[in-house]
């Protein structure tokens, strides 16, 4: 399949949609019927490289650290949400393990 060519005006309008509507690149790309990575490249071309706190372009190591921290944050967010969903009267796995070690019921350490 041949690559689709888009006019500069179309590309600029697509990038404007991402910036002005607050919608994600994926959402705008789907709505326009454009490849997500193509739109992502157009946005990067307009915005320039990702910039760190000092106003300088981020190094690959900084990008990797940012990605790592983002996934770590998502993990904690998931844990916090799952903890909030736990019924208040129900013991957690940790509580059952502690109670089991104390011989008060629950599961024992070896089981």
TrEMBL record:
Any one of the GO BP annotations: DNA transposition
Region Disordered: start-end pairs: 79-111
Pfam family, one: HTH_Tnp_1
GO MF entries: DNA binding; transposase activity
Compositional bias segments (type: Gly residues): 102-111
Family annotation (InterPro entries): Homeodomain-like_sf, Transposase_8
Listed name of the protein: Transposase
Provenance organism: Streptomyces mesophilus
Organismal lineage: Bacteria, Bacillati, Actinomycetota, Actinomycetes, Kitasatosporales
